[in-house]
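Table S2 (continued). Query chain:
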Amino acid sequence: MVDLLLITSLGFLGSFGHCLGMCGPLTAAFSLSRRSLPPNSQNSQTQQQFAQSTPSITSHLAFNLLLNLGRVLSYALVGAAIGALGSVLIAGGQLAGIDSALRQGITIFTGLLLVWFGLAQISPQLLPHIPLLHPFTQGQLHERLNRWMMRFSQSDQWWTPALLGAIWGLMPCGFLYAAQIRAAETGNPYLGAATMLAFGIGTMPMMLGVGVSTAFLSRDRRSQLFRLGGWVTLTIGLLLLLRSGDMVDYTGHAALLGLMVALIARPVSQVWSAPLKYRRVIGVGAFVLAWAHVAHGVDHTFNWNLQALSFLPFSQQIGMGAGLLALGLMTPAALTSFDAIAIKLGKTWRKIHLLSIPALLLAAAHAVLVGSSYLNTVGGVAQRGKALGLGLAVLVVLLMRSRWVWSLFSLERLYVAARK
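Corresponding output:
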């Protein structure tokens, strides 16, 4: 029940930001494109007069109510299908129990997605838009869908708005992905439908009231609700990332991976441009995951009894120290990952971000010395092979940052050097 209330709150408060910006104009356009035609009128002149008239408040409200009911019903049906798929995965073992790698991967992805949306809602200029999460910012797709749906919304059938809403509910939306992933994680078609229904109900007041209820809210009040929604979204995302002790290794490995991708983003950008475009986000995401990893360890591994550190084997104590140093080196880079600060710092900004290189080395040492997947004696050769694999991955990252290595393979023309 608490989860459903959180999802409803997420939908309601999030709708003041993401839904209002992405779907609000579409909702308003549906209403404006609509014309009230008398269903039994055969007189063309009468129909033209009605076509040019403005719908009454009652019919306008009924249209938007059916539109949103269709959308929410569509959400629920999709949630049931996703929940059923989750139940199949549970039966197959992929989602069974809290130890499931897929379940924990879904949780991490959902948490990061919500943290992303929360930060973007709190400070819209802080993070760039990702096409996958904002599909309707792509011009041609947006225009084609809008034209088709505008024509369809002009139909005078009573069921038109409900069907239009159902189609609308199937459209891709980054904010919707988070709720759908939660529905999949329930592993039950009924709970999946309930999750999506709760999310849809949360978004209804804003979508139903676009152009009506918002007129009664001052700009300051709308701004307050917008940012409150961002903080709630951010909080739910962080709760997902921090909720289980079994997430310790996953958050740590995800932070390592993010740091590696951020470090190779610039030299490989001519071959693979995406990492460079989102390098700051990836780097800051790695920093957030590193803190989540620390929180997991302190809470679930040590139960806040930090004196237990002195009873660890000496190699693990060294590993803990290496991890803390790595986090310390990542901190100034994360705190300066903004345009205004980068401009103010000038050349110093790059020097600060070069601290990420020793941070990677220390983080890898921490993983090998402390992580349960590497040098423990129970795992034998296979586990030690993972340690070797991690070491090779770090070496590859460092080599890819060297122009000399690219020149050895006659690929220097593809290497992208740092700006001076």
